[in-house]
Design goal:
By secondary structure, the protein is of the alpha/beta class. It has a single domain, classed as 3-Layer(aba) Sandwich (Rossmann fold), CATH 3.40.50. The protein is built from three helices and ten strands, in the order ββαβαβββαββββ. The strands form two sheets. The chain has a six-stranded mixed sheet. α1 crosses α2. The longest helix has 18 residues. Bound molecules: guanosine-5'-monophosphate (5GP). Guanosine-5'-monophosphate (5GP) binds next to β6, α3 and β9.
């Protein structure tokens, strides 16, 4: 594993090694497996960032599930007014279903709070959220995050699904901007 990588004009250094990510995922799955015992939820991966995390996490789950994907984008220039657009829609009817949302990272919480409101309007039986990373100091929205892999400082991170201007999603570890 490279200790540092260069993406576009910036240098990044290893922040969370591949092995640590793996043990975080196992621990999350242990807890989630207990909570979903006997259930048949819809696991909803929020693209693009969570595709690798979701793929790894579901392989530790031991309950039956349906796996779905949605993609949201912020309306250009109106983020502060709080609108998001669903650009890849939900294929399933989630009414009456248990929904487990899989996020890569929660920063201000804006995206997730809007996604939660939109998804709840379809009448699921329950909604829970698992996020691999959370930046508690950046959080501006009151949102319940039921399962958090790791809390991190307000650093910009890439790798393991997260990009810097489209590069770096394929990196097996998580990197942060080099000081
Ligand atoms: P929020 O709406 O919570 O402020 O931000 C959520 C989205 O912003 C995440 O799903 C992710 O796509 C992006 N994001 C937030 N922080 C980071 C970061 O440190 N690195 C990268 N690559 N994306 C981030």
């Amino acid at each position: 594993m490279n200790e540092t990588v260069k993406l576009h004009d910036k240098e990044f250094e290893v922040f969370i090694a591949k092995e640590e990510i793996e043990s975080i995922n196992k621990e999350l799955a242990d807890t989630i497996n207990k909570d979903y015992k006997g259930k048949y939820p819809i696991v909803l991966s929020i693209l693009n960032g969570s595709f690798i995390f979701a793929a790894d996490l579901v392989r530790y789950f031991d309950f039956p599930m349906k796996i779905e994907f949605v993609r949201y984008s912020s309306y250009e220039g109106t983020e502060s007014t709080g609108r998001i657009k669903q650009i890849l829609g939900l294929k399933s009817n989630i009414e009456g279903r248990d929904l487990l949302i899989v996020e890569d990272i929660v920063d201000t919480g804006f995206t997730l709070s809007k996604a939660l409101a939109e998804l709840k309007s379809h009448g699921p039986a329950s909604v829970k959220v698992v996020s691999l990373l959370l930046k508690p100091d950046a959080l501006q929205h009151e949102i319940p995050i039921d399962y958090v892999g790791k809390e991190i400082p307000n650093d910009f991170v890439v790798g393991y699904g997260l990009d810097y201007d489209e590069l770096g999603r394929d990196l097996p570890a998580i990197y942060k901007l080099k000081a």
